[in-house]
Amino acid sequence: MRVCLHGEEDGLLSGSRHSAGATQSLCVYLSMKAHRLIQQAEALAKRWMVGDRQGKPGEPPRKAWEHPADLVALLDERPGEFSEAGQIKAKAMAWLHDVIEDGRKADGSRVTYEDLSSLVVSYDDPHYEPYLDEMVVIGVGQLTHPEGITKIEYYKTLQEIDYIPKLVKCVDRICNLREGAEVFKPARWARYVEETRLYILPLTEALREETAEWLTKSLEDAMSLRTSS
């Protein structure tokens, strides 16, 4: 069940405060307007994620943007009670989580954090039509592996990121494990599973109970898709 504006996930509204009497109207506003945020994020992902990902054995490569689409589909399976505002933000973040690392603009240059920031529109604008929300952009930045640090150093930063980026990172890892079970070489698979246990599974401890249980089970199931030996 989705609950509008409730709990740690809220923040889609750029930190603004609203009275209880305004909550119902705000929920209607979210239903009518904020879902366009997901559509805009999807459009940007499809524009910038133009390469291919390795397909399953015997199958053609997948479009790069199909990976974030997998994350969004998995988020639709999320059980229990959670914030609708947070779910909208999570889906937009899922669409864009790889664009800084892997995205390319029409001229071939890399997508930057500044490119995303330039598309932010305030929810407080009375003429607001969603393009990108500041909290989504911040979350994408938190999920991006910065240049100049090792993978392990990056993994260690994940304990300090916000609630929704932790959720998205776990969902990303589940999807990567499901793909990797089909295509990773044995050494890479063993290393990926070990890194998941050390650095990704602990992220679930910060999440709401039903979400944490779902993610933990999904991660464990994905790691069991093949042996690490």
Description:
- The protein is mainly alpha-helical.
- It has one domain (2-223): Hypothetical protein af1432 (Orthogonal Bundle), CATH 1.10.3210.10.
- The chain has ten helices and four strands, in the order βαββαβαααααααα.
- The protein has helices at 20-48, 66-75, 84-96, 99-102, 113-117, 134-143, 151-157, 163-183, 186-200, 209-223; strands spanning 2-3, 52-53, 62-63, 82-83.
- The strands form two sheets. It has a two-stranded parallel sheet. The protein has a two-stranded antiparallel sheet with strand order 2-3.
- It is globular, with a radius of gyration of 18 Å.
- Mean pLDDT is 86; it is low at 1-7 and 11-19.
Question: What features would you highlight for this structure?
Answer:
single chain; mainly alpha; two-stranded antiparallel sheet; 10 helices; 4 strands; disordered N terminus
